[in-house]
Hints:
The complex is a heterotrimer of chains A (391), B (382) and C (193).
Chain A: E1 9-16, H1 27-42, E2 51-55, H2 67-71, E3 82-85, H3 91-104, E4 110-118, H4 146-161, H5 165-178, H6 193-198, E5 201-204, E6 206-207, E7 216-225, H7 226-232, E8 237-246, H8 260-273, H9 278-281, E9 284-286, H10 292-301, H11 310-315, H12 332-335, H13 340-355, E10 370-377, E11 382-389
Parallel strand pairs in A: 2-3, 2-4, 9-10
Antiparallel strand pairs in A: 1-7, 1-8, 4-7, 5-6, 8-11, 10-11
Helix pairs in contact in A: 3-13, 5-10
Chain B: E1 5-12, H1 24-39, E2 48-52, H2 55-58, E3 78-81, H3 85-98, E4 103-111, H4 118-123, H5 140-153, H6 157-172, H7 185-190, E5 193-195, E6 198-199, E7 208-217, H8 218-221, E8 228-237, H9 251-264, H10 269-272, E9 275-278, H11 283-292, H12 298-306, H13 323-327, H14 334-347, E10 360-366, E11 373-380
Parallel strand pairs in B: 2-3, 2-4, 9-10
Antiparallel strand pairs in B: 1-7, 1-8, 4-7, 5-6, 8-11, 10-11
Helix pairs in contact in B: 6-11, 6-12
Chain C: H1 28-34, H2 51-62, E1 66-70, E2 77-78, E3 84-85, E4 90-91, E5 94-98, E6 101-107, E7 109-112, E8 118-123, E9 125-130, E10 138-142, H3 151-157, E11 163-168, E12 181-186
Antiparallel strand pairs in C: 1-2, 1-5, 3-4, 6-9, 6-11, 7-8, 9-10, 11-12
InterPro entries (chain C): ChsH2_C, ChsH2_Znr, NA-bd_OB-fold, Thioester_dehydratase-like
Protein name (chain C): Zn-ribbon domain-containing OB-fold protein
Pfam family, one (chain C): OB_ChsH2_C
Amino acid sequence: MKRKPSRRVAVIGAGLSLFMRRALDTGKELAYYAASQALQTAGIRLKDIQAVVMATAPDAFDGVHMKGEWLLDGAGGVGKPYLRAYVGGGSGVFSIISGWMMVASGVFDLVLVVAEEKMSSCQPHPQGAFLTIFDHIIERPLGPNLLWIFSLEQQRYMAAYGIRNEDIALVSVKNKHNALAHPAAQVAAQLTVKDILDSDVVAWPVHRLMVSPISDGAAAVVLASEQVARRLSDRPIWIQGVGWCLDTSYWGNRDLAYPRYVEKAAWMAYEMAGVTEPRKQIHVAEPYDPFAYKELHHLEGLQLADRGQAPEDLARGRFDRTGELPSCPSGGLMGVGNPIAAAGLMKVCELFWQLRREAGARQVPGNPERGVAQAWGDLMQIGTVAVLGVR
Amino acid sequence: MSDRVAVVGVGAVPPRPLSVDRSYRELGFESATRAYGDAGVTHQDIESFISVCEDFHEGTSITDEYTPDQLGAVLRPVHTIAGDGLQGVAAAVMLIRTGIADLVAVEAHCKTSNILTHEQVLAMALDPTYERALRVTPHFVAGMEMRRYLHETGSPEDAVAMVVVKNRRHALGNPVAAYGGILSPDDVLASATVCEPLRELEISPNSDGAVVLVLASEEAARRTPKPVWIRGVGWASGSPWLAGRSWGQASYAGVAAEMAYRMAGITQPDREIRFAEIDDTYAYKELQHLEAAQLAPRADVTRMVMEGDTRRDGRLPVNPSGGSLGMGYCFDATALYRTAEAVRQIRGEAGRAQVAQATTGLVVSWRGIPTQSGGALVLSAD
Amino acid sequence: MARTRAKPAIARAQAPPYVPLRGHPLNEEEFRGQVGSTAWAPRLEYAWDAGVAISRFLDGLRQGKIYGVRCRRCGRTVTPPRAFCELDFKPMDEWVELLDTGTINTFSICYVTWDMKPLRVPQIPAVIEIDGTSPRVGFLHLVGGVRGRTVTEIRRQVRAGLPVRAVWKPPAKREGAITDILYFEPVRKRTKK
């Protein structure tokens, strides 16, 4: 896909709910909080919205079949063209890609994008929703759980490049610290590498404090066509490029050391954005960090660090908020929380605020003009990438 | 640059009550192979792939994981819409119109026979706090809607039965239909009551199936042998709550059709639409959708059906393929089967099921109970 | 398209993250006892058709064999078998009987159940590259026949690159399932006298 899109799309408003371990609020209510805040900051009302995209991950969390239908009133979808895009953990960033398609096609001028997750309903533990992500015939009988996937991938990544757990633990430290300045944060904390490694081993090499939490929460953005964006907003943030890529379901036939599908998605977005040297032209990054090692894995896939070198870059401060390439200045999933689909869109909201210099105590210094947000999911399979910029 | 999009390839496996010999991957591979061959393209020519499926239909969380291989889409831009087949088509249309892709495939599949506890799955779609506790067959939603529709329109149950008769008979002329048959209205009305006034023969029977469509930009379409143009597409959702919805009308279909007509520049649908493939998951829905899509005023619908206007040889053929009642109901793949059949009609490839001068057709889809979500698609020969 | 009426954007000072975000967090006690809730235990049962390729694979397992399949075009030999090559998009029909030995590509030592309860004896999931396939082709299974329960003890016996062998259920107990292989155990070197 080498051609550039013919129409430009901007983000003109963003909103979040709190991210919580267990919310009193229903999924519909959480979606409503985020959506109404996004509309408010865009200076428009729901009736101005012409279409709605919803991203929300496994229906098994809520115990509601076709839960996209059930949630649509909270997302403002009644009476409107509404659809749900669902690519597992990649959904949060894919939601903005889906919304982008709607506006860049010329069919709609104003689209509301909502991402919601309420994991706490799933009993006895939300991880149960992931029991059935594995192949029904040749994997499920082995009794796999979600942690296996991450620990197998982390172990492969460490073995391939000689990375130590101490290097990975730094991600938890950085992101939980960054999240202290995030108003939605669920698990912000000031911790040390020792704290991380002292936490019990859940599935070696993964320690408990390297795992993002179960969360309930929602995020939303408003997208506008160029003409409408210029009329409504004094500081629209442009979607310069989007990319997405899904690898084979035969994950045992792939090398887990490197997320090649993230690379492909990233180049698709970079090419659309006119980015030829990501390390110079990307000023702030929000890679997906459901587990600590994933931020490093994804930074490499995003071409922002050499393969196997992200831990070293992290250790010398390159990815700190005040470093050369701030990564997860929001605090990421490790610090803010992981309501799966909402977490990805939270990262897009962060770029929106960072690029408008509205991120308050989380603001990265200097004059960031372009950022990249990335999400990941399925069986270590999908990369969804969005490049946002001030021009 | 043109904004026109066409359907240039269609591939489907004949829907059947069982498909024990093949896995969903193998069915998908066949439907994709057929579609790409039909379009004269390879899997590498396709630039993006859109799948329409639902976790609880597959029995797999994040069923998106299992979409790329059988489409030849490994390491390509693939995404899943947990929604209606026509939402998948709409997404493909919009993606092409962004200008970044010329060829996009849309797929949907369902092995309904692999779902053992159907009613439990359907019941899971009801609101857990207010609606699910009723613990009656989920078809009650359709029963209640049918009751209200009959009441508001004054339609006799015979008109609903006639839809079944018509569609099952149409299916006899469709070589890929699973449920062709010759029934009389009495057969239908004598069948077991599922949830009064809904009868068993008025519920489309399940089948397994898989469909792939290939959509193309105008530039790419002109290089393929048989483009069928998408003049307009629309989709909409009404309230998910059972309480407070307008039970008698399929307002979501009205909004969707209106959006499609506006895009197509159609101002008099009842004159400009030559035939329609319309969701008939339950027989009464065909009538309700006909009205919502402005193909017949409410007062005329009964007469049209009883007098044969909606038969294949009538003034406004509806479901010449046999619809879901005649072909089988395939959950997420149903809307794409309707679309595939409409495309065949416009190409003149429908054989014994062919409608004469089928130049412009309408597809109307619905996601099934308890949703109020559906889509509309206007297709034409040029 | 509907016309949009412009309204002045909310002053930046009130924009997030400055505005209090909404949500009512509950602690576990509140969640379990003090708020209204509805419970539902679904009965969701499926019987999946294994299809041509996997049926044959499962038959092979029943006979104590691991099958793979080879693509004539790209030359890959892969397992688990499939009816078509997902890369070349062509039918794949050259069946190969593989060995029941392999190499560990990656592994983990899992101390919790799916609902986060502690496991006394940890599970050792792994990706096993099966001998006879193309490089780095494998599938998920378990490692067994390993002494000890701590990470240190287990890591002395299990590592990436370790040769392993399938330990099968006795023939009478096999069902034609992936669990006909109980686990893969480390291949022990014969000690020289």
